[in-house]
Amino acid sequence: MNKKIQSLFYLSALIIMFIACSKTAMNQAPAVDTELVNTAHLDYLYTPLTFPAGSKSAGVYIYADAPDYHRVEASGEGFSCVDDVSRAALVYLRSTRFSTDTAIQAKAMNLIRFILGMQSDNGYFYNFLFSSGLINTGGSTSLNIPNWWSWRALQTLIEGEPFIKNLNPPLFAQMDAAIIKLIAQIKLDLVNIPQTTKIVNGITVPEWLPAGSATDQSALLIIGLIPWCQSTNDAVLRDYIKKLADGIALMQAGDSSHYPYGCFLSWENTWHAYGNIQAYALLKAGLFLNDPQYTSKALVEIDNFYPWLIKNGYKSSLLLAKSGNVFQTLTDNKYDQIAYGIEPMVFAAIEAYKETGNDTYADLAGHLAAWLLGANDLGISMYDTATGRCYDGLSAGGVNYNSGAESTIEALLTLQNAENYPAVITALDKYKK
């Protein structure tokens, strides 16, 4: 989200909440999950709370500011949000210790309860919760509309169900009801949008995706919906996954020989690094739909655009135009670079490695992940294995040493995935500084 890209240096003190109190994770022993994955900072951001109606859950503070890393509420928005909490829950659910560690299980379930508490009557989710315990129902980044945070909730609830089903049957039932409620609204609002297009700066873009042409959101929807379809055989959603994949494919710019080398535009004529997980989603869709065209499209971006980004020291965003068959750059922003821009590429490269068995993709995944450990323009490690902090951004002027939820969570998700594959870790060790 755009709010996360800017370097934020709040000076406010910790806000006293009517939240259920517990000792902060700062006073706890570091929760080292594996050699690279350290959840100590995420544990510190994790905060138990009680909704006004009385239900107990937990949120994750959005910001933590250097040098002392005091926790900070997002001014005018809230102290915690579904967008972050959903991803934090995935970190705990995917932990190698989840099946045996009751503390990790409790954290995951409390974060899931937060998500459930933020669902509105129409099925979509509000995003932000104020430190008072009240839901932010009016802010533009918190509305209960088809947007990022509802897709994040969908992914986490669906992925979390197999973990929770036997562990906590009542919570599982609540999760299932919430998923069904959201999917019903998706079917009403999104599934039947006509497949029309428009031209933006010479580029043909779809109008049937979330926000018209938001391929990044579409990719997240695909990732969330595939496991649900696999378990329910929902034909309507299967067709919708194909429809979303077709929209993403339409937004591919260039090819293996021509700039911008097969990248998937994020929205209209813009590419941005953050959340650009389209290649990963198309690889998943290709398998699910048994349609290699989506796999081929994804590999064009992975094979060509990712190496181009590495060679050019990465980018933050591009604004493009097209004249004939030639793409031109209107705006080229190299910074800020953030972990949220690295994670999608690492996931896509690892998925390509899984599906093809080609070691080139393991090497690429490790090279991309090494950005976190110093393989970047400044040669500075953006993730600290000793503390579990990931810094909020890298720019030409230096590092933003704040360490908020999104940066930390995205780094943890990246490294969790990398550690599942020894060949990726070998490459990471080779490229890190």
How are the elements arranged and paired?
Blueprint: H1 2-5, H2 40-45, E1 46-50, E2 56-60, E3 63-65, E4 70-72, E5 80-81, H3 82-93, H4 102-117, E6 128-129, H5 148-164, H6 169-189, E7 197-200, E8 203-206, H7 215-232, H8 235-250, E9 252-253, E10 263-264, E11 270-272, H9 278-289, H10 292-311, E12 317-323, E13 326-333, H11 339-356, H12 359-369, E14 383-384, E15 389-390, E16 393-395, E17 398-400, H13 405-418, H14 422-431
Antiparallel strand pairs: 1-2, 3-4, 5-6, 7-8, 9-10, 11-12, 12-13, 14-15, 16-17
Instruction: Give the averaged pLDDT, no decimals.
Output: 93
The computed structural class is alpha+beta
Gross morphology is: globular
- Number of helical elements: 14
The major sheet is characterized as: 3 strands, antiparallel
| C-alpha end-to-end distance | 29 Å
With strands numbered from the N-terminus, the spatial order across the biggest sheet is 11-12-13
Rg, please? 20 Å
Query: Helix content range of the residues, please?
Result: 40-55%
- Low-pLDDT runs of 5+ residues are 1-30
Strand content: 5-15%
Number of strands: 17
